[in-house]
Amino acid sequence: QDNSFEQFIINYCNEKLQQIFIELTLKEEQEEYIREGIEWTHIEYFNNAIICDLIENNQTGILAMLDEECLRPGTVTDDTFLEKLNQICATHQHFESRMSKCSRFLNDTSLPHSCFRIQHYAGKVMYQVEGFVDKNNDLLYRDLSQAMWKANHSLIKALFPEGNPAKINLKRPPTAGSQFKASVATLMKNLQTKNPNYIRCIKPNEKKAAHIFNEALVCHQIRYLGLLENVRVRRAGYAFRQPYEPCLERYKMLCKQTWPHWKGPARAGVEVLFNELRIPEEEFSFGRSKIFIRNPRTLFKLEELRKQRLEDLATLIAKIYRGWKCRTRFLLMKRCQIVIASWYRRYA
After folding, report:
1. How far is residue 277's CA from residue 268's CA, in Å, rounded to a whole number?
2. Region (Actin-binding): which ranges (predicted)?
């Protein structure tokens, strides 16, 4: 409910992660569609680059103005920082403040005078400006560092390397905001070179108990994790894709022409299979090496048909086995009867 500097930089990191998620998702989708020769449809989505720019811009960003307030001479308070925000960001469509030049929030009683609000990609968040300047400074006085470095205890000495007289730097140490911004930039650069996977965790209730589902809590998490946006981006393309060989191997029992063995290219076998099942043409596309299925319900239908077919095949195998077992027993008994009859006739 009360958000300060810590939550502000956490949400800034979330904005950057959401931005790289959208970019990597669309980039990966587009590259695969082009590579497979699939027609690409442009996806409309909210690009949160404008929010990232509001926070990290080197001239007019909130972090830059916070650093400027921390470094400038004179009396510096959280109120002067808010005044600066109200002047620079007043017209920004994702910034809201009661005291800004923009008069549209003058009568907004839900927004206190000592707060500002940012429209993040997942929703609006209100920040208490109190403590922003002090938390951003994050200063440790130089004489304290030198005193701790002179301690006889090796651990304490190692914790304060900046107190070493040989390494004294008269330059002002970087602020917490600038350090975090640099860390986020390094993280983004690292992620750009990787193929990241995303796992979103949802808490069903606050009690950590089983069989309790709080719908309001789950909806709140879904909204603020941006899951709806992510799902919409994914569903705009094809929900499922698979190379022809494993696809034919998995579903070949659904068609008499491909079961039990298909002699020919895997793509041709998949085409025969889908035509036999009468799947609408708009539900799938054939790539150069993969089959693309648009909606999950088509995949669910295939899985359901496969499940039923496996049950039928299992019944068929069981029937043949029971028949073979009974016939084997019958033939054994018949041979035994012949032997017994022949011996009895000879005896008689």
Report:
1. 14
2. 184-206
73 and 183 inside one domain: yes
Residues 178 and 268 in one domain: no
Tens digits of pLDDT across the chain (348 residues): 788 889 999 989 988 888 887 777 777 777 778 888 877 766 666 778 888 888 888 888 888 888 888 777 777 788 888 888 888 887 888 888 877 666 666 767 777 888 888 888 878 888 988 888 888 886 666 677 778 888 888 898 888 777 777 766 656 667 888 888 889 999 988 888 877 777 888 999 999 899 999 999 998 888 777 677 667 766 777 778 888 888 888 888 888 888 878 888 888 888 888 888 888 887 888 888 888 888 888 888 888 888 998 898 899 999 999 999 999 999 999 999 999 999 999 999
Query: Do 181 and 262 belong together in one domain?
Result: no
Considering its fold, how many domains does the chain have in total?
2
Length of the chain counted residue by residue: 348
Q: Which domain holds residue 90?
A: 5-138+174-193
State how far the alpha carbon of 86 is from the alpha carbons of 7, 15, 69, 147, 161, in Å: 20, 22, 14, 42, 40
| Whether residue 20 sits in one domain with residue 134 | yes
Listed residue (69, 104, 77, 100) closest to 87, CA to CA? 100
Q: What is the CATH number of the domain that holds 104?
A: 1.20.58.530
Nearest to 303 by CA among 238, 244, 253: 253
Claim to verify: residue 181 and residue 72 sit in the same structural domain: yes
71 and 181 fall within a common domain: yes
